[in-house]
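Quick question, first post here. What does this chain look like in 3D?
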Amino acid sequence: MINHFSVLGIKPSAKEDEIKKAYKRLSNKYHPDKMLNASEDEKQLSATLLHRIQSSYEVLVDPKSRKAFIRDFNNVIVNDPTTAMRELWDEYY
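> Answer (accepted):
Ran it through. Tokens below.
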């Protein structure tokens, strides 16, 4: 399960304006159209990251979705440790 708070680089206690600021900052940073000197692979990667950022924003900006995400995230049982470790690795490296 993706931790939407870590995708946006915010704390779970973040207010709506902090969520919006983080989203705008990251969407500007990773938007493929703004990467003029990047290779096609880098643009592809940034498009993937942008999609993840947009998904996280959509979940966290809506109060009902955010509450459901927090509830579900706190009750997660790791079914696939390999995937969980890969997500952790991608998050930090």
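The helical segments are 4-8, 16-30, 40-61, 63-74, 81-92.
The first helix runs from residue 4 to 8.
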